[in-house]
Design brief:
The protein is of the alpha/beta class and 157 residues long. It has helices at 3-13, 35-38, 61-67, 120-129; strands at 70-80, 104-106, 144-151. The radius of gyration is 22 Å and the shape is elongated.
């Protein structure tokens, strides 16, 4: 007798409320190949106690990446000092305005040029959505996401 027939038999017996096969599973841990992740710099994503840090004081990113790395249908607005649109890990994930092809808005100049002149906005955008597993720089929580740059802070914050 096969597994489906046994499950049906158990279900009909009235002795069990629910039955399913005992699936074989393996623990998977998705590790990107981005250098700053591999060298432990991004300890907030996965803290192994490197550099005297507290082990597992992190957001458990590898466990989340086992489930999903992409949020490509989501637009995340980053209100900060802008975003460097040529950044190797951000350029591919920038939202594009369908009306004018820009990647956001600069509230300080009233233009569609949200370039980062301080660096903080690019850093925040990288944490959210730096392109992952591309062998470059850093990795973000979402490896594929649409990041909208909204510059509302100048170079002095």
């Amino acid at each position: 007798m096969g597994i489906p027939a046994l499950i049906k038999l158990y279900a009909q017996s009235g002795l069990v409320e629910f039955a399913e096969p005992d699936y074989l599973v393996h623990a998977a841990v998705t590790i990107p190949n981005d250098p700053r992740y591999l060298d432990g710099t991004l300890w907030g994503l996965n803290n192994t106690g490197q550099n005297g840090g507290t082990m597992d004081a992190d957001i458990d990113a590898p466990e989340a990446w086992d489930i999903r790395t992409s949020a490509s249908n989501i637009v995340v607005a980053v209100l900060d000092t802008g975003i460097r649109t040529t950044h190797e890990d951000l350029a591919a994930n920038l939202w594009t305005n369908p009306l004018d092809g820009s990647h956001g808005w600069n509230a300080l100049s009233g233009t569609n040029n949200p370039g980062d002149d301080e660096g903080h906005g690019s850093l925040v955008a990288g944490i959210i959505g730096a392109r992952g597993n591309n062998g470059r720089g850093v990795v973000g929580v979402a490896w594929s996401v649409q990041i909208m740059a909204l510059k509302c802070l100048d170079s002095s914050g």
